[in-house]
Here is the input.
Amino acid sequence: MASEAEILDELRRLRARVPQLTGALAAGVDGLVLAQDTPGVEPERVAALTVTALGVAVRMADATGQGEFRELIVRGVYGYVATYAAGRGAVLTVLAQDRVNVGRLLLEGRRAGARIGELVDAEAAARAEAEEQAGAAPAEAPTKTTTARTRTARAPRTTATTNARTTTES
Here is the structure.
């Protein structure tokens, strides 16, 4: 994965841009912590919960036709937990105080998630290219071919009602 130092620098810059953040963590979609700045919080536990929530959020977005997962916001009594997509291989989770400017949280979280995603995806691409140049075969080739799932846009639900007139004679 991308350099822990580079990701940690991005987490610290995010916390500097949004002072009400109480923690930030980048994790792989496998639940492993890539980098964290979460004082007072167990990062491995947060990463595991993040991946669990991510699975539910991805399925929810898919089931409702909303497209690819982008972000998940949870508001508790004492603050917010926000999770953002960070490229294909990572997620960013931030913890914020209840008094945070939510618009600023969303904007800066999206930016940091995009930057972390670039770092992680570039590292994965470089690793794949190095393996290809070395002539290394994939660890295990799939034995069964599968077709990619595609989703067509859903039309909004409409209920057709007929304007039926009834007449009564008195």
Summary: Confidence is low (pLDDT under 50) at residues 141-152. The first strand starts at residue 21 and ends at 28.
